[in-house]
Amino acid sequence: TSAFGMGINKKDIRTVIHFHLSSSPSNYLQEIGRAGRDGKQSQAISLFQPDDSFILETLLFTDIITDDDITMFETGNHLPDEKEKILSTLNIQFTFSQLKDIFHQSYQRKRLGYMRMMGYTNLDQCRRKYLLEFFGEHPQSPKQCCDQDSRLEPIQILNRKKVKRKLSFNEKLYNLFET
Known about the structure:
By secondary structure, the chain is mainly alpha-helical. It contains 7 helices and 2 strands.
């Protein structure tokens, strides 16, 4: 749905299908909000299996800038080019301490959104209400709003292949020296 963020305003979209979990409630609501802009009944379908969580983790947390990265940059140690460019640009306006705070807060926001979306996959309450509560809203649960409010049953897939997750450098290092 990201292509629609480029100025396309199509009002008669009836279905939005996610083949993977969105990274945060705000992204998800923005994406599913593309359906039904003409006020007619629409639906959002999310396809998810537990092994998919590693994809989201990889997308969100693989190349984040950490306190260690900032310390390495500060002491003149080499970083990947992309991180070095980002820190060089930001260090013009922010101190190293401020950069650590900024990136730590960014990480916390991403983690909170990620955890909320992981919780979204295993609910026994209205999905709309669950997402809106993340933003401090407390809506009434309408009838026939989601699969939790109707007689829809989740699809169970048997004999699916396990997806192997690549370990991060830190995980490999930890496993190497684990006692």
